[in-house]
Amino acid sequence: MSLDTMEPDPVFNEDAHTDTIDTLAEHDELTYIVWGGDWCGDCRAQLPTLGAALQAAGVDDDRIEEIPVEKLDDGSKAGPKVEAYGIEYIPTVVVEHDDTEIARFVEQEPVSIPVYLAERIREYFGQN
Question: Any idea where the Thioredoxin domain is (predicted)?
């Protein structure tokens, strides 16, 4: 099952994000787990940019797991791996290296999801 909100943003400017795309492309051993909901405004606003950056970086679909999340009446979230990863807010994106979490974006940061993740990836690999 996939998220419509992960469809790449058609106006994504690769030239403006070369550092981010290069970082995402360089590390082909990473996997990306994306929790979101097509009903979620934050997801609709942010995930297309992530989809575009991952596509521009040539990240294979088999390294991206898109997990749809439902919002329950009490505001909590339900869906695959929600409890195991402690997902409370969406979008949440976890980057793993050899089954170890190395980066996590939760709901909102001052920069876009791909920029935030690329910064954490460079820190993890000592590239900053």
Answer: 3-128
